[in-house]
Amino acid sequence: MSETLPVSAIKNGTVIDHIAPGQALRIIHLLGLQNSTNKVTIGLHLPSKSMGSKDLIKIESRILSDAEANEIVVFSPAATINVIRDFEVQEKVRTRLPSSMKRVFLCPNSACITHSESVASYFYIAEDRKQIKLTCHYCEKSFDRDQVRVSI
Amino acid sequence: MAVNSLYKKSIVSAKDLSLEEWRLIVSTAQRFKAGKPTLSLKDKVIAHCFFESSTRTRLSFEAATLRLGGKVIGFTNSDDLSTQKGETLYDTMRVIAGYSDLIVIRHPLEGAAALSKEAASCPVINAGDGANQHPTQALLDLFAIQECQKDINGLSIALVGDLKYGRTIHSFTELCSLFDVRLYLVSPETLALPESVCDIMKKRGIRFSFHQSLEDVIPKVDVLYMTRIQQERFSRSEYQLVRDQFILTPGVLLKAKPHLKILHPLPRVNEISKEVDETPYAYYFEQAANAVPVRQALLSLILNENLGI
Ligand SMILES: [Zn+2]
Fold first, then answer.
1. Is B106 marked active-site?
2. Which residues of chain A make contact with B51, given a CB cutoff of 8 A?
3. Is the separation of the CB atoms in B273 and B247 below 8 Å?
4. Is B57 helix (H, G, I), strand (E, B) or coil?
5. What residue ranges of chain A have pLDDT lower than 70?
6. What is each CA distance from B203 to A85, A99, B274, in whole angstroms?
7. Which of A88, B80, B193, B226 is most buried by its number of CB atoms within 10 A?
8. Which CATH superfamily is domain B14-132+291-303 in?
9. In which element (H, E) is residue B32 found?
10. What does pTM read for this prediction?
């Protein structure tokens, strides 16, 4: 089966599939994969039967924590996360939208106090009409998920 | 004895307040207005930290503190403050909390009061943080409505002017969710209430509609809440146009309900003409006079666990 995939299979680690197209790079930053030594394969805009187009990330030798898996849902509610052992799917990770996230995002409001103080950002997360909305704990402004940058 | 859930509580946002707390503030403020003996701030030190100037808010908090026998420390602008030397707001607030029983903060940045609450070991009252919130102004506005209309439930209220940048309006709409009210939002298109504030109102079941002319809504409402439209947000010709649409004159009020009352957080520039002052609808000076008793109520409830009444 691995030969038919557009990217190589991994032996042990995690496959994040069915990522909404365009979100893979943000998830890379979220997980800090750009700075890690794990081998990572990224697929962008791959054909998908169910989604038309999707992104995909394969991470060698890393199992995500529950909190990390839940944070991925914020970027891509339909993403599936599978733990791979010996080329086989060992476990499908169950995820749920976290109610808040610290440090990950930068508040887009330039008048927000978080830009002038060394304070960790803090966003409340909610789903509203199929859209993920983030609300800053400090300035109380709400944003669509894609308006909010990930701090690196 | 009634439980005082405001004791040691910080007031950062209008959404921090419950209906029970609102009722407690109203009954306490009414006692202060009536000159009845009530709670004091004897031996308490209140820090007034005004990182930007706001004469009215500062003086009314000072008057409220002094009338209750409390002492005031603080500053009125940040020019000579150590934050200018690079100290963070967090550190400043943590240090000042060590000197005082309660901090009142006014700051140009949004979220400054929420951050101060985290830093300070004492309660914090937000006296305005950028364009975000000004909950005590909203409290005294709603208190004024309560006083002139006797019951807030069932009222139709028009909010007029700059609904986009007006922090008082944001706090006001959040407080409105404690009541059954109908809002008419009257503003130039460019100064409409932000979508995020509308979303909150929808979620809380507040009915509202958008309007671009004062005359349409005047016959329908019980309260007209006017705010200032700042000239600097418009080009000269745009401002002329907008100004004429949102200026209140006795002529505009011809179709008003007899019990209509007009509110304005003051200072006004020209959005309410002087002749309106003489009509029975004008209530903005009475509203302003509530600033001290409402702030007295808030300060004394936060610093006295036992209501003693
Ligand atoms: Zn913010």
1. yes
2. none
3. yes
4. helix
5. 1-8, 152
6. 45, 17, 39
7. B226
8. Aspartate/ornithine carbamoyltransferase (3.40.50.1370)
9. helix B19-33
10. 0.89
CA angle B147, B151, B153 (to 5 degrees): 140
Of A109, A118, A135, the CB nearest to B110: A109
| Strand-strand pairing, B102-107 and B124-129 | parallel
pLDDT tens-digit map of B137-190: 999 999 999 999 999 999 999 999 989 888 889 899 999 999 999 999 999 888
Q: Separation of A99 CA from ligand 1 center, angstroms?
A: 17
Q: How far is CA B44 from the centre of its chain?
A: 24
Per CATH, the number for B135-289 is 3.40.50.1370
Q: Which chain B residues are within 8 Å of A136, Cβ to Cβ?
A: 111
Domain boundaries, chain B: 14-132+291-303, 135-289
B14-132+291-303 and B135-289 have identical folds: yes
Spacing, Cα B228 to ligand 1 middle (Å): 25
The string of pLDDT tens digits covering residues B252-306 is: 999 999 999 999 988 888 889 999 999 999 999 999 999 999 999 999 999 999 8
Q: What is the ipTM of this complex?
A: 0.88
- Residue B252, both tokens: 């505009």
B chain contacts of residue A116, beta-carbon cutoff 8 Å = 89, 109
